[in-house]
Amino acid sequence: MNLPKTEFHKHHGNPAEKVFWGRFSFLRASSYFYFEKSAGVQKILHHIKYREGKELAKYMGQLYGEDLIKVEDYRTIDFIIPVPLHKSKFISRGYNQSEWFAKGLADSLNIPAQNNNLVRIVKSETQTRKTRYKRWENVSEIFEILQPEWIRNKHILLVDDVVTTGATLEACAQKILALNCGTTISIATIAFAS
Predict the structure, then answer these.
(1) How many other CB atoms are there within 10 angstroms of residue 120's CB atom?
(2) Nearest to 192 by CA among 42, 73, 52
(3) CA distance 32 to 74
(4) Domains in the chain, ordered, with CATH?
(5) What pLDDT digit, counting tens, does each position of 96-151 carry?
(6) For 107, what's the count of Cα atoms within 13 Å in the CB-facing half-sphere?
(7) How many whole angstroms separate alpha carbon 145 and alpha carbon 164?
(8) pLDDT tens-digit profile of 40-83?
């Protein structure tokens, strides 16, 4: 109850949207909570990512979806796409935390999650402790769309666990938008790290 909600979904020009301004075309961007080191949200993310907290990720998605569905722009979404993990990372972790967040959002928004179309084709290094440019450099050209026709003229909600510099989400969005097939992108994350 005391976690720091952002309420970004209620406002155009919010800090999450400002992260992506001028980088690629999108309709909306929002995050559920503010990320603060050594606080509750960091503990939740750590549990989700490293302690098999996939059900917690799904629950966060369900809760956030209940807020997002109240906003018109989020009611026009056709489906949700989570940021994918590389196959080797998926095997070692056993699940993709963003996929479970997407499942929760899908439940509340009553729209499907598409987990197998956007894929990570190159294993990248961890983004932790990298500069903004190094983060972008680390993830540029590592994603692929397998079925472009599935996203033609669709409004996609691209989701991840946390947005810091936005490099990973930008790389995913640019890969999708490069197809020039009338796709609209919005973004949602569990947390926003300023």
Answers:
(1) 22
(2) 42
(3) 14
(4) 29-192 (3.40.50.2020)
(5) 999 999 999 999 999 999 999 999 988 765 545 555 555 555 556 789 999 999 99
(6) 14
(7) 24
(8) 999 999 999 888 899 999 999 999 999 999 999 999 999 999 99
Retrieve residue 30's tokens: 């929002």
Contact between 99 and 74 under an 8 Å Cβ cutoff? The reply is: no
Only one residue has tokens 């750590």, namely 46
Rg (CA), the chain: 15
Q: Give the span between the Cα atoms of 26 and 185, in whole angstroms.
A: 5
**Per-residue DSSP letters for 33-58?**
EE--TTSHHHHHHHHHHHTT-HHHHH
* CA–CA dist 83, 15 (Å, integer): 20
